[in-house]
Each structure stands twice: as structure tokens, then as C-alpha cells.
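Risk register update: the risk of archive-format incompatibility is retired. Evidence:
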Amino acid sequence: MLLEMHCHTKEHSSCSQVGAVELVQRLLAKGLQGVVLTDHHYLWSADELKRLRCATKVPKHFLIFSGQEVKTPELGDVLVYGADQSLQAGTSLSQIRELFPAAALVWAHPYRKERLPEIEQLDSPLLDAIEIFNSNHSVRENSRGLQDWHRERFTAIAGTDTHGESYAGLYPTLFDHPIATVEELACEIRHGRCRPFFKEIPKTGAANGVTEVTFGTKGTDEVRERIIIRQPESPINWKSAQRAHFLLGELARHGFAGGRFRVPQPIDQDVGNRTLIQQGLRGKSLFDKLLFATPADGRYYLQLAARWLARLHNCRLAITPLTEFWEREEQRLSRYVERFRNIDHPHTGRAQAIMDVLLEQEGTLIAGGTNFFIQGHGDFHPKNIIIGQDQGDNSSTQFVAAIDFESSLQLPPAFDVGCFLAQFRNQFFEHPKILKAYPAELFLTTYLEAVCLPTDEFQRQVELFRARTNLSIAAFLVKVGKGKSADLWRVLLEAEQILSTYLGFKFATDAEHVLEEDKLLS
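Archived output:
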């Protein structure tokens, strides 16, 4: 059963702006099965609850109970469930326990105002549970509550601490078994048969502590809070994640905080615990959307992605050091070939030849001047692009966002375009119908119509970075143990073809190479 465990009404709490009738009806619409009213030092009588039920006209199965919030000298606010009388402010925990041994006592919003509860307090025998999620906690404080709960494994609940209608039911509590009375509710809490209701899903990169958390139920609208918690394990990964977190803040400040084109907003960071918290976005990756989209919708999604990239490039931002691109690029390209060499791969020579051309051509490009460099994404591809919609029944709230900015640098605009085109082909290679329905020209034409930056050499640069991305894909395949796959041969061959067709370079081939090439091209 899903219950709202912490809420205040304007009838009996001067701090609240929501009436009990509106509150109950809102919770029913959110999909909850009940509510416990917890006004300050006030216990609703049975007659009051009966009249409230009649006024709300909710189904009989919807539970309406009363507990109370009591200010104690030991811990401050404590939620009391199962006492049969109103308690005065200043009543101690030990007194409450002595007077009402069957009641459940829950520490309310213990992390509020940056408090860090001691383990002895969280495990106090006078308490039956801890409220780890609360709307009066910051996102960081809710995250700390979640971490303490996982580490100490005490009984926990969630409570919205509702004082207004709009966010009622945001943090419900799930009970394992059906409940009919407030006494049964207190018993379930005391025996630990309840927990906060939320989804916690490890995401790609979970080895570095990436978790998506979604609170509450969807109901008739979509106001669930979503956050991404990043807890990188190594100092290097922490530094990289911090850098990306900072970049998100800068991009949000330059117009990507909301609207049609956006990035996940950075919410908080806890340096001491190596924890970064970012906004979670409601949507699916462009890759997933295109797999099931109608052709018209798919074209629109692809064009949205192209316009997002053009918007970023048009900002002409210079956030990271200008010299960082070439410093990193030389290291990255060398590392790609090193992966081949480390396993004595038979195509190490081909990878080396491709890298030599890339280094020469990119070096020449940079020698011509870097005044056209702009802050780019650095890893722009369909799985790093989110297509979402804030309101499920309102297409005008649709948006596109980019995620994962660890590779963001000041770079040639063609780098992001070439990366996208190469990754698009690689990710959808096993879906030829999608490649046919959404040709590269659609993305490129849309981008060129929206961007103000490309030079006369832009198309040639795009092809250069397409080949460069193919080398990175090949190196990744070696890294994950797919060095003998047909995909590796394909991306190397395509890199050679691109460099040959657009830049005029010729690559040595032996008889086996020619036969394999003919086979692939056929």
C-alpha cells in the first residue's frame, strides 16, 4: 500500500495552505491508497475523520488516518503514529514511548538545514524509523538520507511534509501488507515492513557510481522528481565528473536550462563524499526513439538533435582551455593504436596508418588557426541525446537534451558533426531500414541551415572526423574483447575509404584485404 505519511492541513496547522479535502483528493488522483494527517500537536478525532471522508467522497478503500508531529527536546520534530491523544510541544521521546508503547515514532526530516545525524541517533532504541525523504530536505539532504539508509539499514519512511496542494504525495511510503487501522500501521513501522517508494536504477557507467533515482508515483500528471547521483570511485574519474558538472552549469547559464533545447541541470555537489547530483530527464535516447518511431516522427527527432548541436555551436562558448583539444587528441589517438599493439592485433598496421593520417591532417588544421574553435560536446551521438516531453499529453512541451559532457572541449565544430554521423551509422548498422529512412544528409542539412559557423572546408573536416571516430570505435571494440568481430573490420575499412575518397590518401592492401573488401561492399 502507498500512503502519504507526513502532511499538514490549514484546518489544524497554521503553516499549511491546503485544506484537508483538497489534500485527500489530490493524493487519490496521484494513485496513493491512503494518507496520515500529521498536524502539529493535533490528533484528528474519529468524528472529524468521518466528516472528512464524507466531504471528499473518496472510495472506502482509501485510508484516512491521523498521527501528529511533535517537537521533542532530544531530536526536534518526531512523527507519532498510534497515540490516542494530542501531545504538547516539549514532550520527550521517553515520555511518548512510556505513554504509548504501541505507537511508532519516526524522526522527521533529520537532514534538514544540513544536519548530519549521528549513527547513534539513527539507531536510537526510542525511534522506530527515520524519514529519509522529505520536501523540506534539499536534494543533497535526501541523497544523504538515502546513503545512510543503504549503509546502516535502519527502517525508513518517506514523507512529503505537504503544506500545499501542488506537491502533495511527492514522497509516499510503501507498506508491504494491507493495513486497516492506524494501530496496524504503527505495528508495521515498528517491525520494519515499510520503506520509501522510489526507483533506484544503476545506469551505464555504474562502476563509477551512476544511479538514477525517481521519487513517487506518476498519477494523472508527471511531476515526479528525478535525479542522477554520481559517485566516482577514483580521483581521476571524480575530477572528470566534476569538470562535466561545471560545464553543465555553464551551459544552463547560457540558455540550456529549459525550453526545447536543454541539458540536465546540476543540482548539488558534495566534495567530501565525492557525490554529484544532477537533474534527471524524463525521456528516451534518440537511439531508442528511432527504433520505434514513425518515419515522420523519426525525421523530426533527428532534426531536433541537429538543431541542438547548432544551437550549442552558435553560442561560441570558450569554457575549457583552448590548448586542451590538441593535447588530449594526440594522447587519445596514440592510445587507440596502443590497444591494437598490446594484443598484437593483425590490423595494428592499418590502425597505425589511419592514425598517422589523422594526426597529420588534424595538425595541419590546427596550424591554420584555432580562432574557429568553439566549446563542443565531444561525444555527440544518438545514445547521448535525450528526446523528452514534460507533459505526456502536450507535444508542445517536447524537448531535446544532450548528456555526458566528460569529453567536452573547445574543438572544431566539424568534430561533433563527424562524430555523430560515424556513431549513427555504427549504432544502427544492424538496422538498415533506419539508415535508409534517416540518411546522413538529413542531419547535416538541418545542422547547416541552423548554424552560423562552418567554413569552406567544413565538409572535408566532417569527413576527417568521421574517420577519426571510426578509429575510436575500432579501439573500443578491441578494449571490450571484440577485436575479431566483423564490425571492427568494417569501421577500419570505412575509415580508410573516407580518408581515400575525401582526402586522397591511399592505403596499402594485400590480397586478403581486397577479398574482404569486395565481400563487404557486395
